[in-house]
Amino acid sequence: MPAPDVLLHPVRMRIVQVLLDGATMTARQLRQELPDIPSASLYRHIATLADAGVLEVAHQKRVRGAVERGFRLHLPNAAVTAEDARQLSRDDHRRAFTAFCTMLMADFDRYLATPEADVVDDGVGFTQAALWLTDEELTALRSELAAAVHSRINNACNGTRAKYLIDTILIPAR
């Protein structure tokens, strides 16, 4: 796992987020997806993620004398395993959760800023529920949620599908 600081930067989190669907993109394509990020900053963060092994070069080609690289997530380094999570300090977890929530709020703000945003028609939803679960029931719930997501995670962009982000948070209410 790369150092937490590599993944916890807001710009780097957004780059990873754009590539979560398995896409391969050049720096120019990432720039089109993230137009609010200054070019120099975006290129610097792409390099940081590539140097840390979070991004890998999927292809490269010469374009007018320069080498254009297509980047994709290098999943073993872009995900935090249970063992990785055990190695993080409480402060690391606190920082990661704060970064996650900040990213979530920024995603929602960007969505609401679009003129066509319609929370009802777009199927936007957020809710909280309290569940009483045994350890086995919690394990089953996590498996069911993972299965529902994994059964759709390889859906390709085909002109009729809209890209949605799904974020889950499970916290014991102690």
Overview of this protein structure:
This protein is mainly α. The chain has a domain at 4-121: Winged helix-like DNA-binding domain superfamily/Winged helix DNA-binding domain (Arc Repressor Mutant, subunit A), CATH 1.10.10.10. It is built from 8 helices and 3 strands, in the order ααβααββαααα. The chain has a 3-stranded antiparallel beta sheet with strand order 1-3-2. A hairpin with a 2-residue loop joins strand 2 and strand 3. The chain is globular and about 60 Å long. The model has no long low-confidence stretch (mean pLDDT 90).
Overall mean pLDDT score? 90
Q: Total number of helical segments?
A: 8
- H/E topology pattern: HHEHHEEHHHH
Look at the structure and name the CATH superfamily of the domain at 4-121: Winged helix-like DNA-binding domain superfamily/Winged helix DNA-binding domain
Structural class: mainly alpha
| Count of beta strands | 3
Reported for the largest beta sheet, the result is: 3 strands, antiparallel
Second-tier CATH architecture of the domain at 4-121: Orthogonal Bundle
* Spatial shape: globular
Beta-strand residue fraction = 5-15%
Give Rg in angstroms. 18 Å
How much helicity do the residues have? 40-55%
Query: Any idea of the CATH class of the domain at 4-121?
Result: Mainly Alpha
Q: Which features would summarize this protein structure in a list?
A:
174 residues, mainly alpha, Arc Repressor Mutant, subunit A, 3-stranded antiparallel beta sheet, 3 strands, 48% helix
Write the layout of secondary structure elements.
Blueprint: H1 4-7, H2 10-19, E1 25-26, H3 27-33, H4 39-51, E2 55-63, E3 66-73, H5 75-78, H6 82-87, H7 90-113, H8 135-150
Antiparallel strand pairs: 1-3, 2-3
